[in-house]
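Internal tracking record. Fields below are filled automatically when a chain is submitted to the structure queue. Please do not edit lines marked as system-generated. If the sequence contains nonstandard residues, flag them in the REMARKS field before resubmitting.
Queue: standard
Priority: normal
Entity type: single polypeptide chain
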Amino acid sequence: MTHRERVLRALAHQEPDRVPLDLGGSAYSLNDAHYFKLKDYLGIKGEVEPYRHGHTGNYYDERVLEALDIDCRHVGLRSASNFQVKVSPDGTFKDEWGIPMIRTGVYMSVAGHPLAVAVNADLDGYPWPDTYAPGRTAGLRAKALHYRQNTDYALVARAPASVGLFEMGCFLRGTDVFLMDLVANQDFAHKLLGKIAEVFLGLTAVYMDAVGDLVDIVTWGEDLAHQTGIFFSLPTYREMLKPLHTRIFSQVKERAPKAKLMFHCCGSVRPLVADFIEAGVDIVQSVQPLAANMDLFELKREFGERVSFQGAIDVQQALPGTLIDVENEVKARLRALAPGGGYILAPCNNIQEDIPPENLVHLYRCAREWGKYPIEV
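SYSTEM-GENERATED OUTPUT FOLLOWS
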């Protein structure tokens, strides 16, 4: 099979020749420190330009993906060309949303919340990002056409922003304040989430108008859960966020009717999976195996006929461990999720510096060998 045929067969809940493999997309990419070590380990010479700045993972190197026989390639929106970052003497800078950021070690951290004390009336005058600003799709369609016409890879559109509705509310308002808003200040929370959603709807329209007819998967990224549960009650999700997700995902499918919608959400996300499916999600991404209530056999049994899974390879213990740990991880996830198709193997989150490059290479080597159908590990 070609790489694309393999991915599409799996997403049709049928068994391809082997389990598809992915790396390099939203929330399952390489942090810079690991990327440079992996490139050296693979003997890859020569540098590539970073495709973005100000993040923990800024490099996308197709030579790495080719070496690991990854089945997907990825495209994404650029920053607006008329937006310039201005760094203050204390090292802080504001992003396009007006959120102060600062680098702490290898990570970017929120340094302030511009709407922390805002009231409803303040939201109308806030300088929201201009979704139609120039430069966001510069070269995007040409790149997507190249992949479609000159390669056999499945094409994945990254998430239009690095965070989603809930996280952006936390960034703008402060996590503690916004969580209280969702319960005790719902008029404000509805209006704030609506303003954020309008920006995302604009970005999605621009994005899909450029490449929606060319991509196989469109990603949405949003962390709504932590290691032991979701950040709020299920009724709160259904009242405050689900209608907006449904609206955004409907717009994606109108403009990219052949693409599958993939939702990245870390943590103990099981209580939300049925609602994700109702909102239009085709692929649940991350599938963090060490989070509470994330038994992968049960997830496959309960939801496997209605949704596909992508990810599931543990980055907390298995990948930073020994080669035997990596082998056991691959076997366990293949046994749980691969039978019958509906699974793309990938790390459940970004590859951090503590993961040895030889472990990542071994992961994909084992997956290619043991992921052949019929699954017999």
